[in-house]
Automatic annotation (TrEMBL):
The lineage of its organism: Eukaryota, Metazoa, Chordata, Craniata, Vertebrata. Coiled coil: none annotated. Residues 139-193 form the DNA repair metallo-beta-lactamase domain. Belongs to the DNA repair metallo-beta-lactamase (DRMBL) family. One of its GO terms (cellular component) is nucleus. Keywords: DNA damage, DNA recombination, DNA repair, Endonuclease, Exonuclease, Hydrolase, Nuclease, Nucleus. Its main location: nucleus. It is found in: Nucleus. InterPro entries: DRMBL, RibonucZ/Hydroxyglut_hydro. This is Protein artemis.
Length: 198
């Protein structure tokens, strides 16, 4: 049997280019989410989930269940996380120019929202190893730099967890102008958060 199916890609908000798939055919409508991260009310604003003024009738949802576990009962919103990180980074970096933050990011993509907001709010560019992966995302290029002389780092080392010793950043920075750095590490990770919340 053959059936024509319309497939619509919807933004998943997980990392740049991530999508959810909406399948529509004679036998009904199915939404496959994959990894997604949508803010409250964001799905309601997606025009392609609506038909006229009504939400489309979706018979089945194939939902990513990475965090379907009681220890992830409450995951803070992206805005709550950003505000907490902003407050911490602002208070730390304002102490002296030698107080720096390392964002211990476990994946290559998915932190663009954080980098852009930190840079815009604090006026500090985020140090990354290479700009290559951001070439197709011009909106972030203004907020990241390969110059190590900044107070916010998202640089990486193959063994980040083992590598950060004392006040040494993964990029090798230990001091600026002969003054030792004071480094704090922030691990922006839902998985890590879930393992530690009570």
């Amino acid at each position: 049997q053959k059936e024509d199916i319309e497939v619509t890609l919807l933004p998943a908000g997980h990392c740049p280019g991530s999508v959810m798939f909406l399948f529509e055919g004679e036998k009904g409508t199915v939404l496959y989410t994959g990894d997604f991260r949508l803010a409250k009310g964001e799905a309601a604003r997606m025009e392609l989930l609506h038909s006229g003024t009504r939400v489309k009738d979706i018979q089945s949802v194939y939902l990513d269940t990475t965090f379907c576990d009681p220890k992830f009962y409450h995951i803070p919103s992206r805005e709550e996380c950003l505000n907490g990180i902003l407050e911490l980074v602002r208070s730390w970096t304002s102490l002296t120019p030698y107080h720096v933050v390392w964002l211990n990011c476990k994946a290559a993509y998915g932190y663009e929202y954080l980098f852009i907001n930190l840079s815009e709010e604090l006026g500090i560019k985020v140090h990354v190893n290479k700009l290559d992966m951001f070439r197709n995302m011009p909106e972030i290029l203004y907020h990241v730099t390969t110059d190590r002389h900044t107070q916010i780092h998202a640089c990486r080392h193959p063994r980040d967890d083992d590598y950060l010793r004392g006040n040494r950043l993964p990029c090798g920075m230990t001091c600026q102008n002969g003054t030792p750095l004071h480094v704090i590490s922030i691990k922006p990770s839902t998985m890590w958060f879930g393992e530690r919340i009570k």
